[in-house]
Amino acid sequence: MTVPMILALAITVLMIVLIMIDRLPFGVPPLIACLLLVVFNVVPINVAFSGFANATIVMLASFMAVIAALQKTELVTGFKQMISRLASKGGFRAYALIVVFVMVGCSIFGTGSTAYYVLVIGLLSTLAYNKKLPPSKVLMPAGFAANHPLLPFNVALQYGIVVAVLEATGVNERVDLVRFSLVNLVLSLGFLIWCLIAYRMLPDHPITDDEPPADPALEGGDSSPRGGGIAEAAATATATIIAPVLTRRKQIAAYVSFGVAIAGMISYSYIGDAGYAITGLAVAVLLITRVLTFGEIRDAISQPIILMSAGVIGIAEALGKTGLTQLVGESVANLLGGNVSPFLLVFAFCVLTSVLATLTGSTIGTVYVFAPLAIATCIGLGLDPTAAAIAIVISGWNGHFLPIDGLPAMVMGVGKYSLVQFWKFTIPMYVIRLLALTAGALLLFPM
Fold first, then answer.
1. Taking Cα atoms as reference points, which of 4, 10, 32 lies closest to residue 19?
2. Around Cβ 300, how many Cβ atoms within 10 Å?
3. To 5 degrees, how large is the angle CA 247–CA 253–CA 256?
4. How far lies 152's CA from each of 15, 106, 149, 237, 406, in Å?
5. pLDDT digit string, tens, across residues 58-74
6. Under a CB-based contact definition with an 8 Å cutoff, are residues 157 and 305 in contact?
7. What are the boundaries of each domain within the chain?
């Protein structure tokens, strides 16, 4: 290994440690790492901070503003009313419809949305005990359903990261957005099938007879918060996410802007960066029609998740420029030999990524470390790395088998599940999701 390789690796490890200890604001560790890369002359400043000029980041930031506008429409209000009506009916049909309805709602908010899953769990936590459908029987599957879009058209964040990690490792592959969405659909269907199977094994007990224990709030890293109080988190998210409903004219403008943004993302595969610019223009429409103020747009496009994504792109670029990524990829490829099953290769990297994302609480950081390594390994084996990149990126949001991260901890705490009850649902869920994800990625993007 060369000195630049060693320095790049040491700075990357430092970034991961800073993310894990969660002492700095979310998004700051990658920026510190980028500055250190420049100070130690590992890469020039334009490479270290290349993420901030990355077309994917521009698209992600724009789409964040579009989603902020969509959350001010009647869709959120209608969602809340529908959940309450279904829960009062009870029975397996109501259970299935609640799970499906939450998954449809996730299609709007996107995978890994903290505000959305806190909203869902907060609403379900207020349900009175009903023998026909005990809240404990629906809260866990519906809580995790908030992570699975049934209509996966809002996949901008994950899609952008896939494109970014491929580009950072020198793979100029234009990933088809429609097929990428279908991979998410296969994953969501695998999750839904497990929820339907697990209905009878879910526990039956009340969850509102006393105050819920302290657990995660809306602070900490990534879209997976840690620390704080559940009741306060639920109340805060429910209060903040449901903004005053727009006028009819402004709601139409929000829906049109959302459609234009999606069209721009889909067209990227055919017209390149101009497609992402279309997404940016959709935000201009929101400003002109006064759906969002300039301050709201500024806050949306400068969220910590954008800083994190832009910063780690520079780290991935540096690892590639020094040759470290290629070295690791070739070493792993030689270790595995030429007869390794693509399915087992992708599945193993998905397990590794999802486990470490769960343990560290840093989904984005973990994905940006392991995806380039998997891509380099595939290249070393002579395989198309697209499926591996897609599966590994998505797997970062599909751990949840341990109650130490935001969503699973909140599910377990609010639902008053024992660890055994929690694991009876989450461990099979974890395995089924990663199997479905790997199969879907390889089916739609053959290696």
1. 32
2. 21
3. 140
4. 31, 8, 5, 23, 22
5. 877 887 788 788 778 87
6. yes
7. 3-444
